[in-house]
Amino acid sequence: MVTLRPGRATIGTYPLDAEDVMPPHPRPRTLLAHLLVQRHWTVEDFCRHFADTAAAINAGTHGITDRQAKRWLAGTVTRPYPVARRVLEAMFETDTDALLSPVAQPTDREPALSAPHGMVPARITRDDGHATPGLPEEMSPSLRRDLLSASVLLTATGVTLTPADRAARISRAIATAGSDPLTLAQLQHGIHRLTTLYAVTPHGDLIDSIERAWEDAEILLGAARPGTARRDLELVAGQYAYYRGQLAFDMSDDPTALTFFVLAAQHADAAGDTLLSGSIAVMRSAIFFFAGDFPRAAVFARQAQRGAHPYIVPKLASALARALAQVGDTDGALAALRTMSDNIWTGPPQPGPEPGGEEGYEAFSAVTLGYLGRGDDAERHAHNALALLTGTGRHVQLAGTHLALARAFIRRPRPEPEQAAAALRDALTAAQDNDHGATTDRVTGIYRHLTVNPDWAKLPPVRDLADRLPIRKELPSGVTV
């Protein structure tokens, strides 16, 4: 489940702002920590060397945070992501399992580290720092009883558990059939919450929670047997992979987005879910579109239309409309807009992209007509969309519609560059503090288009935009704004 509180979000039981610090023990608890002591490295040194090694071996990761490093050193994580394993093994020429395993410790352990009556439940620790039950064949009846007892007796150690916490622990301990029905239910509820929270939550606040929930789903899936539960896990793992890909896309990280979308598509095929597969097609089309490959963007959208889920039909039509507009197929683009209008979604949001409702139709009409050079008509649709978005807090849609309005002012018979600059400022305001790399890129591209005209470049509203943009940032060749 996803929970929003002021300044943070959680999925399941994982708070974004949880403190992860090294335990106050003078002795290294893992081989990795022991090696850092030998090298006289601080945590900061370790993170820096990790980033340098990742770059040297082209591992595809920029590094780790102090928080993650401390969890590795403390031994609370034993299953890091594969890319992290590659870097660690390159740094120390030692298997990651050995690096993150505990080193021999004296027997006078602190009492608080043991469960009551010496019961320490066996566990597999994930990269999120939380433990999962062993696989069914590893869970004997006596161990299950110990787990149940530990769940109840943990209150004696000074840890305060609510009745719901204790019920959750007991439910997970009872699960012995290769699936964890409580965790699956929580993951599914998290997806349900994401259908509304994604559009109104800063992207950076969602990354950690979505990644943790996605990894939980993948771990459960790895232990699941064929049947209904496995199909449910395939679907929920694919849905979280989809949302992680959409986050990357909105934050202007297309390589990461593509990786997660391909993974999500594999899960969609296994689950036989047309809503998920159609959602991925919408986003794959968007990646091609904003890279300037309009024909392939159109092909992706058109091919996915056959048998598409009703929720996805208007989204695919909108993707097709803007792509055809960019290749000069006016009739095809307008026909796609009519398809969108005929299939407007009137139900609640579903897992996937934002719904293709009335606001979406107005916004994509503005986008498409703007690309067709019909700025006056595009402006009208953009204002309609903005009116429908008022007070919703849907920052991605607000930013995108202001961008469409800016294009409309430029692509009308009598351009209005000052109005376009004002719309670009509004797009940046909508994106502010919401981690929109893509919006900044597109505003930058339109700004550069404005400054190509020397008369427009001198206008105060256009000049003022320069203070809010990373002007030195290079846009990819052929990028579409």
Explain this structure to me?
By secondary structure, this protein is an all-alpha fold. The chain is built from 22 helices and five strands. The protein has helices spanning 31-39, 43-56, 66-74, 82-92, 96-99, 141-153, 163-174, 181-197, 203-223, 228-250, 254-271, 274-290, 294-303, 313-326, 330-342, 358-371, 375-389, 395-410, 417-431, 437-452, 454-457, 460-465; strands spanning 2-5, 8-11, 14-15, 124-125, 131-132. It has a three-stranded antiparallel sheet. It is globular. Mean pLDDT is 78; it is low at 1-9, 12-26 and 105-161.
Feature tags:
single chain, mainly alpha, three-stranded antiparallel beta sheet, 481 residues, globular, disordered N terminus, 22 helices
> Spatial order of the strands in the main sheet?
1-2-3
User: Regions with pLDDT < 50 over 5+ consecutive residues?
Assistant: 1-9, 12-26, 105-161
The whole-angstrom Rg is 26 Å
Mean pLDDT: 78
Considering DSSP H and I runs of 4 or more, what fraction of the residues is helical?
55-70%
State the assembly state of the protein chains: single chain
The number of strands is 5
Q: How large is the share of residues in beta strands?
A: under 5%
Note the total helix count.
22
Structural class: mainly alpha
Largest sheet composition: 3 strands, antiparallel
| SSE succession | EEEHHHHHEEHHHHHHHHHHHHHHHHH
Principal-axis shape:
globular
Beginning-to-end CA distance, first to last residue: 35 Å
